[in-house]
Specification:
Blueprint: E1 2-8, H1 24-39, E2 46-49, H2 53-62, E3 69-70, H3 79-86, H4 93-97, H5 99-114, H6 125-140, E4 146-151, H7 153-164, H8 169-175, E5 183-189, E6 192-200
Parallel strand pairs: 1-4, 2-3, 2-4
Antiparallel strand pairs: 1-5, 5-6
Helix pairs in contact: 1-2, 3-5, 7-8
């Protein structure tokens, strides 16, 4: 069977005007995961990213030579848009500024989104799930044996939940566990698609590099 290794992008710029920019820590994380893959002798035959800057810059910082292909299905859901839709444009200051409150509200918002409990978002849950499935089909419709994908936490959570046949709520429970630049590995052959490894960070395994760990 072939492998699809999915890396969550490096740490972005939470709390800044433009979230879609790698922080200095995110750049170091990206270089570290690229180095550990090469150290294991794992070099991709095919490289795919979403269209977001933080995803493409993660791929660049990982240091592989080939130019990536892009598929928008690997882009994250627009959490700012979802929060604005849920709160009718009046997102509480604490939700926007306090990290713990923000992620608690995000979890609740995703569950309501899945249930169709509010309207006005640019993308429905069913549209998100469909584009992630389309991105997976794109990446695995290949003769390549090693496919490297750079994506985001929500997409990885959805890919994992789907591979496990888990209830849709599990997507967000997985999403919130996923570390920046963690490795999630799937095996595929034809229509078969299965999870082999989730949220692994061998590049953060010693006392010095563990300091690189982040979740947002």
């Amino acid at each position: 069977m072939a492998e699809m290794v999915v890396i969550r992008h490096g740490q972005a710029s939470f709390g800044q005007d433009n979230y879609d920019v790698l922080s200095d820590l995110g750049k170091r994380q990206s270089a570290a995961v690229g180095a550990v893959l090469r150290g294991l002798g794992w070099v991709p035959d095919r490289l795919v990213t979403g269209t977001l800057t933080r995803q493409k810059d993660t791929a660049l910082a990982m240091g592989f030579s080939q130019a990536p292909e892009e598929h928008p299905g690997f882009n994250e859901y627009d959490f700012h848009d979802l929060l604005h839709a849920r709160y009718d444009g009046q997102v509480p200051d604490l939700v926007q500024g306090d990290r713990k409150t923000h992620f608690r509200a995000l979890r609740e918002t995703i569950f309501e989104w899945q249930d169709g409990a509010f309207s006005g978002a640019a993308e429905t849950w069913d549209q998100f799930a469909a584009r992630v499935a389309a991105a997976r089909a794109f990446a695995t419709d290949t003769d390549a044996r090693r496919v490297l994908v750079i994506s985001s936490g929500g997409v990885i959570g959805q890919l994992t939940a789907t591979a496990l046949g888990a209830p849709r709520r599990q997507m967000m429970n997985l999403n919130l566990q996923i570390k920046n630049t963690s490795i999630t590995r799937f095996m595929f052959s034809g229509s078969n698609f299965s999870l082999a490894e989730f949220n692994a960070t061998p590049h953060f395994s010693d006392p010095e590099s563990v300091k690189l760990t982040s979740y947002s």
